[in-house]
Amino acid sequence: MTTPDVAGFAGLTAPTTPHLAGLPRSPGLTGRAMAPQPSGASQGFSPETARRDVPILHRTVNGHPLIWLDNGATTQKPRQVIEALAAFYSSANSNIHRGAHTMAREATEMYEAGRAAVAQFLGAPSPESIVFVRGTTEAINLVAQSWGRANLGPGDDILVPVLEHHANIVPWQLVAKQTRARVVPVPLRPDGSIDQDAYADLLSARTRLVVISHASNVLGTVPPVREMTALAHRYRAKVLVDGAQAVAHFPVDVQDLDADFYTFSGHKIYAPTGIGALYARPEILQTMAPWQSGGNMIESVSFDRTTYAAVPHRFEAGTGHISGVAGLLAALNWLTAFDREAVADYETQLMAYAQGALAEVPGLEVLGSAAERIGVLTFTLPGHTPTEIADWLDHDGIAVRAGHHCAQPALAHYGLDSAARASLALYNTREEVDRLVASLLELQAA
Question: Where in this protein does the record put region Disordered (predicted)?
Answer without folding.
Answer: 1-48
